[in-house]
Amino acid sequence: MTVNTHSTLLRLSLPQYTRKDLWIFAAVVPVIVLVYNSLIFGNRYFSEGRVFVWASLSTLLIISGFWFLFTRIAVLLRYRFPHDNDLMKRMVISIFLFILINALIVTILFWGYDYFHFLNYELNQVRYQWTLLSAAIFNVFVTILHEGVDSFDKWKKTMLETQQLKKEYLQSRLLGLKSQMNPHFLFNSLNSLSSLIGEDTQAAEKFLDEMSKVYRYLLRSDDKFVTLDTELQFLDSYSFLLKVRYGDGIHINRHITAAQRKLMMPPLTLQLLVENTFTNNTISKESPLVITISSLGEQWMQIQHNVQPKIRIGIQEGEDLGLENVVNKYRLLSGQAVTIRQTEKQRVIHIPLIDGEETLAYE
Fold first, then answer.
1. How far is CA 361 from CA 209, 226, 227, 228, 321, in A?
2. Distance between CA atoms of residues 80 and 151, nearest Å
3. What residue ranges define each of the domains in the chain, with the CATH number in brackets?
4. Quick check: helix, strand or coil at residue 127?
5. What pTM value is reported for the model?
6. What is the SS3 assignment for 306?
7. Angle at alpha carbon of residue 228, lines to 225 and 232, rounded to 5°
8. How confident is the model over 263-304, as pLDDT tens digits?
9. Helical H runs in the chain?
10. 111 in Cβ contact with 124 (< 8 Å)
């Protein structure tokens, strides 16, 4: 426990621009030390062991201290100019500041060594100017390297999130299809249809029409977003099938504003949440399952239902996959969290809605 706390404090105390900062430091700083000292001391740096050791150590300590100052400045500039279109502005400001600070470092080394007669050094103006030029070149190179590594990290993170998002969408479609196309559901649907044909042909036609809409939507839901209105229309068809099957054992109420119907959400979100609800709760006419979908503020929606869990032996694998899938998709798509609050008698889910244009029409 002590080791973990110490490592956490170390990470908090040191600025970090990329995850590869230490690798860049280890690769670049030794080169800078060698170049600076070879310009300062000339041939003495490589021919005299005492000069090589002490000059390298002193220069390494000075440059290391300023290196973390450079990183802190770079981090602050990234917070100030965080967007991709700010890249050139951020780099120009960074390079300008770093060249000024590096000029100060070089001046400290040359005049400091001369003033204290460090290793019998005497100031050489020509070498001083060449070192200033080298420092400027190093600044440009290191700044470009840091930005390149940072951009690569962002690209890699985006690729990983894209792959995870694709996985969530495939799982979403699989869960939706699985909940509707498994033999048990299909048998119940066909059994309901068969009963309706014998009792009420018009109701049977309505059931078949709504059932075809459900399957058509499930098979076409490839888009990232659909409007809430599209999802609610699909929910009408889906809830119709549930009402035929469960009768008064299930009630789905909706209180959605007209403005919110134009906002977006991932397809099958409502179906997965409703399916998760009736799968994990008992349904009966005497104790009906009541699901209420309502607006919450300008860009949030609330799904609330009473909790009357089924009696299960052990934990059923995958019983909350639909809910987990919705949570993961929202985290990847919008960065907003789906909040879930549950008591012994009630579960409340808050879903964020997203601005955008409709990408899938309900038929």
1. 17, 8, 9, 11, 26
2. 17
3. 2-158 (no CATH), 182-352 (3.30.565.10)
4. helix
5. 0.50
6. strand
7. 120
8. 988 888 888 888 888 888 899 888 899 999 999 888 899 999
9. 2-13, 21-41, 44-47, 49-80, 87-115, 125-181, 183-199, 201-220, 228-246, 269-280, 321-333
10. no
